[in-house]
Amino acid sequence: MHKPTEAELEILQVLWKRGACTVREVHEQLSQQKDTGYTTTLKLMQMMHEKGILKRNESQRSHVYEALWQEEEVQKSLLARFVETAFGGSAMKLVMQALGNSKTTEKELKQIKEMINQIEQEQQKQKGGE
C-alpha cells in the first residue's frame, strides 16, 4: 500500500463515511470544505481506480466508486510511518507529545487508561501462552 496523497485521503474519508458514491456526490462533499473543481475530483478518482485504491461500478450511467482500502489499515500504515519518521519509532514519544500539547479531558484520560490496561492484559495472555 503506497502512502495516499492528501487529496486521495480526503476522497477516501468521504467514501468511508458515506459508502459507495458517484463522483458528483464526492465532489459536493469535498466542495463544502474547499474550493475544488468537479473535473479535478473526477480525474483523481479515476487515477485512484487505476492505482487499485477505489473500485468502480460501471453498470449505471453515473459510475459509482467505493474504497478498496479499509480505513483502519490506512490509519495504521500512516501512523506507523509517522511514528518512525517523526518520533524515531517511539510510540511513547508520540503519546507524550500528544498529551503534552493538548487539553486532554478526564473522559479521554480514562479511556487511555482503559486502553493501556487492555493492552497489558493481552500481553500477559500472550506471555502465558508461550
- Let me know the number of strands: 3
Number of helices: 6
Helix residue percentage: 55-70%
Percent in strands: 5-15%
Average residue pLDDT: 91
Kindly report the name of the CATH homologous superfamily of the largest domain: Winged helix-like DNA-binding domain superfamily/Winged helix DNA-binding domain
- What strand line-up does the widest sheet have? 1-3-2
Give the CA-CA distance, first to last residue.
32 Å
Low-confidence stretches: none
C-alpha geometry: elongated
CATH domain class of the largest domain: Mainly Alpha
TL;DR of this structure?
The protein is mainly α. The protein is 67% helix and 8% strand.
Helix-strand layout with pairing:
Blueprint (H helix, E strand, L loop, with lengths): L5 H13 L2 E2 H9 L6 H14 L2 E4 L6 E4 L3 H17 L3 H10 L5 H24 L1
Antiparallel strand pairs: 1-3, 2-3
Helix pairs in contact: 2-3
